[in-house]
Task: inverse folding
């Protein structure tokens, strides 16, 4: 069981490493989107600081979402997904493996990059720390929920946009608590409540998402 | 001496600039040379193995 | 072993076949015939559990395959129109992943040997996408040589293969059947296969 | 005597040529760097307005110049590669990109470190700074696209096309200070007609020029070495590489 | 010649209409992204008004970019792109047709939607008008430049993210002038300079992009 | 008509063939042979102008095809591994678009007639994605019946076709050649074609 999980994670990581630019480009997308806002909004530092948390979180959302379309699509097109369905292992486990790999490739780097971007917007040490912690709790949820959307829209034309339509509404709670926690710490308030809520969401998603995605995959592959 | 490194009040900025620049230029040189060396080794091995095979 | 009773499949709003019943036992080959669009691919996918039939039962050893789930998958190898290969991985890596996911460990040797047997010794390390049509198919076929399960479903396996490869594949099928395996295949090409007992199923002209 | 330039555009003849000349460039670069550094710290006087902080100029400006010039040269090679389909040209473009990206980063870095004492902030979103950042993204895009394509011929052609499209950005960077009034100061050195005009003292100007020349020579040396590796990699199947490697044995 | 152009535009529009959700989803994506910001940033009206132009423009950029991957990818996978290359018509013309269709599907709806979103952020009549005009001038540029990126990354794994890396830097000038014009009109200044610059960019892109994309396609299809 | 001189093609870092020269004249058929991975597809794509050869010339009526560009496309019909169909459009719409882009107007009748001839009368209005493998191929083949240009390049056109369709296609090829057309094809299947003059080109075993 665990061996199979590990095998899937490893396979997807190898595939990502074959195209090292994949990993880099998600991060760069994140960086670019965050940098676009000051360009659009103008160089007012005070304004920038007050929108920092929102912007970084929205960018994380978008970056994670953009890489979602790739989660199952490649496997679907070349028929390996079909084969994964025929493997003598629980499908939810296979899906979990793919989600873990997706997070390692597209979520973790965002977490690690975020302090640098926060600096650009003039956030203080505490707020930077909080930004990282919330992203660490939140990005796995994005991958988990996103997997359901990706599985449902598999093989549909325009899946990329459709998936965002399905998934973004579900992302909103994560966004609100994540950005809320950071803002609370910017103004010097505690954010424990926000954090424990995010933890609860993460556990819930971890329990439900693999099953839901597996069911969605069975439907889509037919 | 210390005065020289302090550069007025701008020491950190100046040395930060020159330091990182030096780091990058030296680093790039090392990377390029090392890449060349390993490449030559790899290709050399390939040629040798092919030659041995033909014999 | 495999029993199909009163199977009915519908795609879109067209009924492809209904009341289809047959069974297959160990050490036999089933050749599925029918013109383009008769529903052969649909039937094979239904038997593999990828398509939900409209009505009817598919049983393996007397159990419904939907109930069996992973149990049945352990006995099954399905090769469809798609290659089922990751194009960025080499043939070697692809086979390795398959074996591991199917739950058995294979040595480097075994994988290399399988690839050599399908005539890809020189391309072991190339990513699959750099291979030609026929070579890709050969990689997929190499799975038939690695601890193959009992029941093979092959949907037009001869596509894109050159004469040598066609002979090789027929031999593989024959040996498998002779050793008590089961093979279900469909092909429009004329291929001579001599296996113990050959069953022919014809899907209606449409 | 007319030199047959196309002869040198063949990797097989260029490889040994590059090997012979690159040490000279490396040596000259090292000497000029030492001279330039000595002048920037000990000869150039303290600026009456900016104090010592202005000494960053001696790397900031060469780095900024190099970042733009290297891009132009890279795009030029890419264009040559696409027009005459010479393999060497695209290899040159590939070899230039990392060094160009490095100088772009250095221009940003040193600029930021200069901005803190002078403007009181690391970063502002003004036209020149922004367009320099875009340049960095263009370099990264070039390298990412090239590494994302496996077939080297397709990679060379696709990334070459991208380089050409990106050239639009260079005049924007250069003229940004003239087109928009921004925080960043305008060109203090103008190359018009006969001479170089400058608002700086002569000694500062000379130091700057020596550092710039040193960066040029450094770039040439590094790029020649890198292009040799690329040639070897891409041509590893060809006869001349095999013969050359065998001779070495 | 023109008949062929029209034929391509019509074909792509028919295809889009087959999946009407495609058109809707781009618009919804736009709407959702714009609406996420008040959620991430908080309900401060003054803050919102001052970031309105930037946010709407960034959202338009992202929406247009997201739909880019679809521009040639479908045609590439099913081999119709190959056939377009073999048609006895100038390839640049075919590409122009596809770009026009793309803009009609994913650019024009954004232009039409924008006043509504601007209202949400409390923009005045003049500013709303300016927002629409800049989007009308700017979104075709996005489609044109984007086509080059989409053609270059065709068939590459992770193309979706790579295309954003290539294309976003080139979008930045459009963003700056577009958002700049709206902001100028928010504070009551004239924006003629910005608008004429955007017009110039549009003409330039219209002249160059079809050729560049055609060249890129030839490279990618090989 | 078509002259190939000293053609060399490279994929990745492997040379597939070099110094390949042959020519073809009107009213003839060229059959390309070679094992999997020999470079047949690559050669056909190079001749269609989709792949840039490493060196060598491809001339049509004495002119380089790269120079001719759209002129040459007007004379050419290429059917590759891909169907080249939009799966969301029906067979009818697909053919209509092709005809329009190729610069001639076809009536509704003509298109329907072509689809009837390939045996898809019943599926005219179905989107192509709802067709089976073989039916998709048939739609692609219907292009050969609509104002076909002179020079056909067919890469494994018999794939996925049932016996009836194979006969139909051979007949279409024979008529075309008899009427002064040119056909270049490759297939691993054994198919009897009797056309005026058949040229065989073999690409080396690899
Ligand atoms: C991250 C921030 C910065 C960036 C990206 C940047 C970028 C550039 C570029 C691209 C150039 C070359 C353009 C040309 O030759 O006209 C340049 C030149 C120059 N920069 Fe910066 N710069 C930055 C910050 C600064 C700061 C803070 C200062 C000083 C207060 C400064 C002073 C200069 C000077 C004096 C020149 C030379 C102009 C000339 O003489 O032509 N820069 N910079
Ligand atoms: N998603 C779908 N919607 C509607 N009809 C479909 C769909 N998928 C398949 N069909 C129909 O089902 C029929 C059978 O398809 P199938 O692929 O099983 O045929 P086949 O016997 O494998 O034919 P071939 O020999 O051409 O491969 C076809 O006529 C097709 O029109
Ligand atoms: N992108 C690529 N990179 C590297 N090698 C490639 C690439 N594309 C094709 N090749 C190689 O080119 C060779 C020829 O491929 P091609 O598709 O032309 O063969 P083919 O003769 O059509 O074979 P088949 O009968 O199997 O279709 C193959 O051996 C393949 O490995
Ligand atoms: Mg079938
Ligand atoms: Mg082929």
Result:
């Amino acid at each position: 069981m665990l061996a199979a999980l590990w095998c899937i994670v490893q396979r997807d990581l190898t595939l990502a490493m074959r195209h090292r630019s994949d990993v880099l480009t998600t991060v760069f997308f994140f960086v670019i989107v965050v940098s676009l806002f000051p360009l659009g909004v103008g160089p007012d530092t005070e304004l920038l600081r007050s929108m920092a948390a929102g912007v970084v979180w929205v960018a994380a959302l978008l970056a994670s979402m953009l890489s979602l379309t790739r989660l199952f699509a490649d496997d679907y097109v070349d028929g390996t997904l079909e084969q994964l369905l025929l493997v003598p292992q629980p499908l939810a486990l296979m899906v979990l493996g793919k989600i873990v790999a997706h997070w390692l490739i597209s979520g973790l780097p965002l977490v690690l990059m975020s302090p640098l971007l926060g600096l650009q917007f003039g956030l203080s040490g505490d707020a930077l720390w909080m930004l990282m912690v919330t992203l660490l709790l939140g990005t796995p949820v994005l991958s988990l929920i996103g997997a359901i959307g990706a599985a449902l829209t598999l093989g549909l034309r325009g899946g990329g946009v459709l998936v965002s339509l399905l998934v973004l509404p579900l992302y909103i709670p994560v966004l609100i608590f994540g950005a809320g926690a950071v803002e609370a710490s910017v103004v010097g308030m505690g954010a424990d409540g926000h954090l424990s809520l995010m933890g609860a969401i993460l556990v819930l998603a971890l329990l439900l998402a693999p099953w839901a995605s597996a069911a969605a995959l069975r439907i889509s592959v037919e | 001496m210390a005065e020289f490194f302090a550069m007025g009040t701008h020491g950190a900025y100046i040395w930060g600039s020159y330091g990182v620049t030096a780091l990058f230029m030296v680093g790039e040189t090392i990377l390029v040379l090392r890449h060349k060396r390993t490449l030559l080794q790899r290709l050399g091995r390939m040629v040798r193995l092919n030659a041995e095979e033909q014999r | 072993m495999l029993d199909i009773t009163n199977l009915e499949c519908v795609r879109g709003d067209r009924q492809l076949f209904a009341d289809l019943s047959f069974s297959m036992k160990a050490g036999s080959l089933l050749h599925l015939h029918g013109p383009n669009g008769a529903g052969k691919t649909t039937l094979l996918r239904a038997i593999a559990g990828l398509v939900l039939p409209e009505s009817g039962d598919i049983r393996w050893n007397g159990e419904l395959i939907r109930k069996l789930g992973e149990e049945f998958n352990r006995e099954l190898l399905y090769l469809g129109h798609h290659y089922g290969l990751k194009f960025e991985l080499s043939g070697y890596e692809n086979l390795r992943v398959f074996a591991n996911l199917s739950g058995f460990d294979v040595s480097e040797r075994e994988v290399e040997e399988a690839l050599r047997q399908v005539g890809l010794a020189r391309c072991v390390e190339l990513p699959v996408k750099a291979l030609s049509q026929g070579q890709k198919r050969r990689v997929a076929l190499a799975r038939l040589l690695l601890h193959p399960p009992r029941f093979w479903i092959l949907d037009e396996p001869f596509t894109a293969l050159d004469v040598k490869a066609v002979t090789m594949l027929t031999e593989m099928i024959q040996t498998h059947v002779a050793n008590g395996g089961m093979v279900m295949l469909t092909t429009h090409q004329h291929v001579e296969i001599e296996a113990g007992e050959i069953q022919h199923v014809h899907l209606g002209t449409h | 005597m007319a030199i047959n330039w196309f002869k040198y555009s063949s990797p097989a003849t260029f490889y040994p040529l590059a090997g012979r000349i690159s040490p000279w460039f490396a040596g000259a670069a090292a000497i000029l760097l030492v001279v330039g550094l000595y002048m920037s710290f000990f000869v150039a006087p303290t600026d009456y307005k900016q104090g010592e902080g202005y000494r960053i100029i001696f790397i900031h400006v060469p780095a900024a110049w190099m970042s733009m010039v290297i891009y132009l040269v890279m795009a030029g090679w890419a264009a040559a590669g696409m027009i005459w389909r010479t393999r060497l040209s695209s290899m040159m473009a590939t070899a230039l990109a990392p060094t160009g990206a490095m100088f772009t980063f250095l221009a940003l870095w040193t600029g930021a470190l200069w901005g803190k004492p002078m403007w009181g902030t690391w970063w502002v979103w003004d036209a020149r700074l922004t367009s320099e950042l875009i340049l960095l993204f263009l370099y990264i895009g070039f390298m990412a696209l090239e590494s994302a394509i496996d077939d080297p011929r397709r990679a060379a052609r696709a990334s070459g096309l991208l380089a050409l499209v990106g050239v639009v950005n260079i005049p924007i960077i250069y003229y940004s200070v003239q087109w928009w009034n921004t925080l960043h100061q305008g060109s203090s050195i103008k190359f018009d007609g006969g001479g170089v005009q400058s608002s700086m003292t002569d000694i500062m100007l000379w130091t700057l020029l020596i550092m710039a020349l040193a960066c040029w020579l450094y770039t040439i040396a590094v790029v020649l070495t890198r292009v040799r590796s690329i040639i070897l990699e891409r041509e590893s199947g060809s006869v001349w590489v095999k013969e050359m490697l065998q001779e070495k044995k």
